[in-house]
Amino acid sequence: xxxxxxxxxxxxxxxxxxxxxxxxxxxxxxxxxxxxxxxxxxxxxxxxxxxxxxxxxxxxxxxxxxxxxxxxxxxxxxxxxxxxxxxxxxxxxxxxxxxxxxxxxxxxxxxxxxxx
Length: 116
Prior knowledge:
Blueprint: E1 13-20, H1 25-38, E2 42-43, E3 57-64, H2 65-78, E4 84-88, H3 93-96, E5 101-104
Antiparallel strand pairs: 1-3, 1-4, 2-3, 4-5
Protein name: DOPA 4,5-dioxygenase
Pfam family, one: DOPA_dioxygen
InterPro entries: DOPA-like_sf (IPR023389), DOPA_dioxygen (IPR014980)
């Protein structure tokens, strides 16, 4: 069973990965566009394929601790039924995606073997 830990702001830098599929693509695309329109954050490619350890289509948002208290509640409100992985960026990819990983929505099992 995966642990559903609520995001906590205790690191300097973060990524959020918004997961979606073909049926939720429109919602994800709307969130993606709203971030571009309303935030000064770095946003990654809108991947309609699995990338890295992520078992679903996704896009990435990079942000810092100064943005955390605004970004996380906003994402939680906008995501509806989408799952969002929020993790620290410490330089240790394995720990960032396990020990320092938090979830908005239902946690999913990541493909962690890429870190070995």
